[in-house]
Amino acid sequence: MLSGGSDGVIVLYDLENSSRQPYYTCKAVCSVGRNHPDVHKYSVETVQWYPHDTGMFTSSSFDKTLKVWDTNTLQTADVFSFEETVYSHHMSPVATKHCLVAVGTRGPKVQLCDLKSGSCSHILQVMFAGHRQEILAVSWSPRCEYVLATASADSRVKLWDVRRASGCLITVDQHNGKKSQAVESANTAHNGKVNGLCFTSDGLHLLTVGTDNRMRLWNSSNGENTLVNYGKVCNDSRKGLKFTVSYGCSAEFVFVPYGSTIAVYTIYSGEQITMLKGHYKSVDCCVFRSNFQELYSGSRDCNILAWVPSLSEPVPDDDETTTKSQLNPAFEDAWSSSDEEG
């Protein structure tokens, strides 16, 4: 597992539980430390493995760079430099015909870096305009390798086809076109900054979160607001918020940082299943490991916690006559709210 810190350091962890104990500590295999000549100068905002080969990974930082790393040597293979602070980047998990890295920066344009041509071409001239403020989150569709979603501080979420000169396919509208274009909130996704987005595993829907404390689910083919109500989803992050969805569960879940906890919702009903408690400072990011049905969360308390599914939950202490755990149907293939986990 890759992790990036606010100090610019990148650490690689071995996730194997060699102890076979229920509670264990993952070992750090190696790191790009403060003394490394190519270490990021400021906070690392995003790290990602090259989707087809773990021999390479990428990182981006507030130091205005995107770096491509050789995993074996921990040396940079390429560096892309930007004029603005970098908030987020993403490589397509399904692309076979391009090696584009989408980058969101403090500028209002979506920027694309081509790993095939390298930094000699710097940043592609195809920079899509359309947003009015900084781009806080970017994500490629897992369904179509040319479709890119972007979220901005201008309250808008856009879907792009990077093959098209005009670029923009859809600007989603929280009102589904039912309000006049003269209304200030027309063609906006949220009533505040949109600082996180995530496609569902099949790519048919897109989830977004905003500083209006709302999460919304969109049809990714036509941009329709599905109007699923998740209630208040606390979000006071000043930068990108990285949340994730489950893969391979009988019901699909979304995991969202919520203060010092992680809120778990069923995607299509909006029901809040549980709150995962274990961190003691704000959670900034979480990622799902589908092979083992595990969730990992990173927090400002300097800890990364691993969460595993639990099919049973403890019986309340006030019932002294009952000693057995009871199966909670809501947690079949799902998640336990036990404070002991993590």
Automatic annotation (TrEMBL):
The domain of life for this entry's organism is: Eukaryota
Q: Where are the WD repeats?
A: 37-79, 128-163, 187-228, 276-307
Stretch list, region Disordered: 312-342
Entry keyword set = Chromosome, DNA damage, DNA repair, Nucleus, Phosphoprotein, Repeat, Ubl conjugation pathway, WD repeat
Give the Pfam families listed for this entry: WD40
A GO BP annotation: proteasome-mediated ubiquitin-dependent protein catabolic process
Q: Where in the cell is it found?
A: Chromosome; Nucleus matrix
Q: Which pathway does the protein contribute to? A: Protein modification; protein ubiquitination
InterPro entries on file: Rad28/ERCC8/Ckn1/ATCSA-1, WD40/YVTN_repeat-like_dom_sf, WD40_PAC1, WD40_repeat_CS, WD40_repeat_dom_sf, WD40_rpt
One GO cellular component term noted in the UniProt record for this chain: nucleotide-excision repair complex
Asked if the keyword Phosphoprotein belongs to this entry, the reply reads yes
Q: Does the keyword Ligase apply?
A: no
Summarize subunit and interaction data from the UniProt record for this chain: Part of the CSA complex (also named DCX(ERCC8) complex), a DCX E3 ubiquitin-protein ligase complex containing ERCC8, RBX1, DDB1 and CUL4A; the CSA complex interacts with RNA polymerase II; upon UV irradiation it interacts with the COP9 signalosome and preferentially with the hyperphosphorylated form of RNA polymerase II. Interacts with ERCC6/CSB (via CIM motif); promoting recruitment to lesion-stalled RNA polymerase II (Pol II). Interacts with KIAA1530/UVSSA. Interacts with a subunit of RNA polymerase II TFIIH.
Q: What does this protein do?
A: Substrate-recognition component of the CSA complex, a DCX (DDB1-CUL4-X-box) E3 ubiquitin-protein ligase complex, involved in transcription-coupled nucleotide excision repair (TC-NER), a process during which RNA polymerase II-blocking lesions are rapidly removed from the transcribed strand of active genes. Following recruitment to lesion-stalled RNA polymerase II (Pol II), the CSA complex mediates ubiquitination of Pol II subunit POLR2A/RPB1 at 'Lys-1268', a critical TC-NER checkpoint, governing RNA Pol II stability and initiating DNA damage excision by TFIIH recruitment.
Q: What is this protein called?
A: DNA excision repair protein ERCC-8
